[in-house]
Amino acid sequence: MNVQTFKLITMSELSLNAWNTFLANSPNVHLLQSGEWGELKSAFGWQAVRIVAGEVGAQILFRRLPLGFTLAYMPKGPVFSHQPALSPVEGSSVISDQFLAEVDEVCRARRAIFLKVEPDAWETMECDDKSMRIAKSGPAGVLREDFAFHASPHNIQPPRTIIVSLKGSEEEILAQMKQKCRYNVRLAEKKGVTVRAWDDIAGFHEILLATGERDVFGVHSLAYYRRAYDLFHQAGMVEMLVAEYEGRPLAALMVFARGKRAWYIYGASTDEERNRMPTYLLQWEAMRWAKARGCEEYDLWGVPDGDEETLEAQFTARSDGLWGVYRFKRGFGGEVRRAAGALDRVYKPLLYRVYFLRFAGRSNE
Questions:
Q1: Are strands 335-338 and 160-165 parallel, antiparallel or unpaired?
Q2: What is the pLDDT of residue 134?
Q3: Which parts of the chain sit beneath pLDDT 50?
Q4: Considering the domain boundaries, does residue 92 fall inside one?
Q5: Which residues are 124's β-sheet partners?
Q6: How far apart are CA 177 and CA 108, in angstroms?
Q7: Are residues 24 and 127 in the same domain?
């Protein structure tokens, strides 16, 4: 059965418009739970299903596996109605039996081997014999052991990141950066680098391909970035910026924003004029764009998965994987954080074991 042809199965499943209406009460929901993100993934091999039960909802992505089975994935969910602003809260919002029953129904109807949940939470766990409590900045959820969730051996999104505070004046934001990074921002300006909004998706993709080959990371198709830009730009949730010197593009990025949060997810640079430090000014202008929209934090999206002490001890000697980007990102003076670990809810135990032997790691975004 083709996963793209599934119809609404439960009364709790929402259309895109209804989901966006539900999210209107939760302006600080993570980007990956936005309707636009679901539409983007639906155009490239996934199916987005949105469900709500009471005050809890989630956008679940389904991806086809061999023999008609699927992988179910809830990125940075679930969502709680009237989700508060970005500040630590006491207590928690409980994931109800009703909500989980709806989740199980849509997952089983689509022959999901398992559901992977990556909560919109930071890694602060309080465990006892009866429950696993996810404490986080924002609403918290309780996933009880009798709900059959367990810690997953595999994350899809990078678990560790750096969050830069955008509170205060621009001078205060600059002051929190490492001295060398702040110097490079000013140096780029002095050396004639300029940054502006850009809509040349093909040009952006060319830079991405060159960067991916140089730094050994995967790059989506041109159609993917064009669809991402069209969806989020129309909603006022993305800007593409380019750093130039004498009219030549040197680096570019897409900065996304929703509510009080902004994310740097896609970016690339050429090998030209690197002594002019274009990537530093580019990031600074992305932060300024996000701050002007009312964002209070900027997520640099992905550094090596080690504690800050390990990162600081090793970054000068390593350049493999995400180590090179950590050397760059650390300069902006943010706080290293680790997302709460992924949780799996298994529907077919034998196939779940087979999946991790053969397919885990291939579905990374």
A1: antiparallel
A2: 40
A3: 1-8, 87-92, 125-140, 142, 144-146, 363
A4: yes
A5: none
A6: 48
A7: yes
| Environment class of 227 (CB within 10 Å of its CB; exposed 0-12, middle 13-18, buried 19+) | buried
* Distance from C-alpha of 49 to C-alpha of 340, rounded to nearest angstrom: 23
Cα dist from 273 to 4, 270, 330, 357, whole Å:
45, 8, 22, 44
Pairing of strands 46-53, 56-64: antiparallel
Containing structural domain, residue 119: 3-157+340-358
Nearest to 140 by CA among 115, 121, 160, 113: 121
- How many Cα atoms occupy the beta-carbon half-sphere of 171 within 13 Å? 0
Q: How far is CA 171 from CA 182, 239, 261, 333, in A?
A: 10, 23, 20, 13
SS3 content of the chain, % helix, strand, coil (to 5): 35, 30, 35
Whether the CB-CB separation of 49 and 106 falls below 8 Å is answered with: yes
Question: What count of residues does the chain have?
Answer: 365
pLDDT (tens digit, 9 = 90+) per residue, 90-121?
334 567 788 999 999 999 999 999 999 999 99
Q: What is the pLDDT of residue 88?
A: 37
Tell which residue, 1, 15, 89, has the closest CA to residue 50: 15
Centroid of chain to Cα 49? 18
pLDDT at 362: 56
Check whether the bond before 75 is cis (ω within 30° of 0).
no
> Domain total for the chain?
2
Residue 78's alpha-carbon distances to 24, 55, 81, 154, in angstroms, are: 15, 10, 10, 19
What are 160-208's pLDDT values in tens digits? 999 999 999 999 999 999 999 999 999 999 999 999 999 999 999 999 9
Taking the C-alpha atoms of residue 113 and residue 279, their distance in angstroms, rounded to an integer, is: 42
3-state secondary structure 291-334: HHCCCCEEECCCCCCCCHHHHHHHCCCCCCCCHHHHHHHHHHCC
Is 365 contained in some domain? no
The verdict on pTM exceeding 0.85 is yes
Residues 144 and 258 in one domain: no
